[in-house]
Amino acid sequence: MARSSSCSANRCGASSPLPGTGCARASACCRLIGLITSLNAWENISLAAAYHGKPPVAEVARITHEVLSTFGTEPRSFLNRLPDELGMLERKIAAFVRLLIAAPELAIIDALDEGLSREECARVAGFEKEYRGRHPSGTLLFVDTREEDP
Question: Does the global pTM surpass 0.70?
Answer without folding.
Answer: yes
